[in-house]
Amino acid sequence: MEAKVITPEVISDFRNALDALGRSVHTVTRYLFDVTSFARFLDGREATAEATREFRDSLMLRGYAPGSVNTKLASLFSFFHSLGWEGCETPRVLIQKDAYISEDAELTMEEYRKLLAAARSPRDRLILETLGGTGIRVSELRYFTLEDVRKRDIRVQCKRKIRRIMIPEALGRLLEDYAAEQGITSGVIFRRKNGGALDRVAIWRLMKAAGRRAGLLASKVHPHNLRKLFARTFLENGGTLEQLCDVLGHSNLDTTRIYIKTSGAEHRRIVEGLGLVPCQEEEPETEPAAEPEEAETEDGDSEDAEKPGFSVKTGTKPHGAKKPLPRRKNKRRKGKRAKK
């Protein structure tokens, strides 16, 4: 049996297999990086399930987030499957899914507007508006050509799928005006100085710079958060989950649901408004319990006459108590007894 040792030749074969499957450049780069990291960890040893488990545990000890560890394990799974190295996989790190996202990770509409206002140039602002207004992936911005913008209909290709992107009319006019100002008559709208399309790294940097000027948390400012903001806003304006799945280019609804998680603050607002736990000040009114009837004193007055809250003037007393005799009649009785 052939030894399962990761060599440069094996990694090259894996690259060719990924290219044949039509994987994106970003995906290929990430997979190869993860496999190379695993090869360095093995240091010439044979790949086994135990070795993969040790690699997983070492990443956790080094402080990698569980999600990042699972991403690397997914790369290794594709690698093993491509080469037919069965039995080398190891279970992923179990992560309980949160019902809501952290407030430090969600980009709100108000923060989005601050981000636009802090853009360094009209071009940077328009790039952010294009990402936010269409919900595209940052790698798909290179498909925005002047010819397609004029048709308000763009076809993008990602992960072996081709889908249509509808451009809002307001955004289309802004893109056409920008192209006219820059002297662009055809081809890609957002370009580098050499004429090539802007890459994802350049877009990431300009967005981070705008976020710093706007005073936003760095954890909130990245291109994918614009895609999630688009998803939430799409549903708030009447779109369905199935429609959103098609617009975002997802293969299943479970992926789309990840994009529309609300923040902890929104969950708290909903829970607080349920009204299932009444406030102390709003305790339900209950019928007061009847007090036991008290004996009259020798002079005929009730013992309640000396209790706080009893009104001698009105003769009122707590609900359910025996009504006292009038004081005037009591005095007459005393007089008759004195004569006797």
List keywords for this structure.
340 residues, mainly alpha, DNA polymerase, domain 1, hpI Integrase, Chain A, two-stranded antiparallel ribbon, 2 strands, 50% helix, 4% strand
Q: Can you describe this structure?
A:
This protein has 340 residues and is mainly alpha-helical. Among the domains are: 8-83, Tyrosine recombinase, N-terminal domain (DNA polymerase, domain 1, Orthogonal Bundle); 109-269, Intergrase catalytic core (hpI Integrase, Chain A). The protein is built from 14 helices and two strands; from the N terminus they run H-H-H-H-H-H-H-E-E-H-H-H-H-H-H-H. Helix 1 (8-20) runs antiparallel to helix 2, helix 3 (49-61) runs antiparallel to helix 4 (66-83) and helix 6 packs antiparallel against helix 8. It is globular. The termini are far apart. Mean pLDDT is 80; it is low at 294-322 and 333-340.
For the largest beta-sheet, the strand count, sense and barrel status come to: 2 strands, antiparallel
DSSP summary: helix tally: 14
**Please, what is the CATH homologous superfamily of the domain at 109-269?**
Intergrase catalytic core
User: Count of DSSP E strands?
Assistant: 2
Strand content: under 5%
* Low-confidence region ranges: 294-322, 333-340
Which assembly state applies to the chains in this document? single chain
Structural class: mainly alpha
Proportion in helices? 40-55%
- Judging from the principal axes of the Cα atoms, what is the shape? globular
> pLDDT average, as an integer?
80
Intertermini distance: 129 Å
